[in-house]
Amino acid sequence: MSLLAVENLRVVYSSASRAVTPWRRNRRIEAAPAVDGVSISVGRGEIFGVVGESGSGKSTVARCITGFITPTSGQIRLDGTLLGGRRSVSDRRRVQMVFQDPYSSLNPSMSVLQAIREPIAVHRLRPRGEIDSRAIELMRLVGLDPSLRHARPRQLSGGQRQRASIARALAVEPDILVADEPVSALDVSVQAVILNLLRDLRANLGMSIVFISHDLAVVSYLCDRVAVMREGRIVETGDADEVFANPIDAYTVELLASVPPHPWDAPNVGQINRFQLQENTNASSRH
Ligand SMILES: Nc1ncnc2c1ncn2[C@@H]1O[C@H](COP(=O)(O)OP(=O)(O)O)[C@@H](O)[C@H]1O
Ligand SMILES: [Mg+2]
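Above: the input record for the complex with magnesium ion. Below: its predicted structure, written as tokens.
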């Protein structure tokens, strides 16, 4: 059985109809759904990609899975349990979100250590005396040097901030991470580091990840299976290798054609090193 099952999700933002036609406010006008008929299933230890251009409904799907919004219709099950719109604290804990902008989950006035220890304390996941050591353990897990524990978010690099927000998400020991464009704001070299961190989390913790991106290269690098979204619907889904090697849907073909060559668009890390070598070669040949 899949860990996460999203069935026939439909979301109509009610504010959209009012915003578009304020003069007809009293008439019931059905806005176009932001998401319609979306079904996905994610297995344990699987990295599932959701890809599509801006406005295709990816973040709306993420908000439904994490419980930030309640879908107009459709169901979300985690390990067979129905997750409703109003979730219990323990159900909320099981699905954690990683955002494009780490400031969304990091309080600027809190140190890295405070940010990671807070959810551990709130959910009483460790005895008081062990919370700090657990937070340090999580810093190590995401590749943050414990010497950074007193740093504030603004004192960290973009990659370090994203590591800290991933550590905070992991602090509550979730079943699944929903990462919405987690590397889109980062430099390419840092993107690779964060993508490899997500891979390691899957390998070492068996973490399941819904990975959302508009960037096909990133998705093909990281994900086992993908769903391609367009205008709120899934137009194609399957094994990532299959979908990207032999796209069936015209839109996927179009998306693939528009992908600029990506430095680390490769099935393994070795390619990243090759690219770096290439970069160096180019740099030296110019002199
Ligand atoms: N809070 C909202 N209210 C009204 N419409 C929204 C809201 N959020 C998103 N939308 C609309 O829903 C559609 C899907 O948006 P979104 O899920 O953010 O797409 P993506 O993440 O793929 O860019 C877009 O047409 C967007 O304008
Ligand atoms: Mg989005």
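Notes for the reader.
The longest strand covers residues 4-11.
The radius of gyration is 20 Å.
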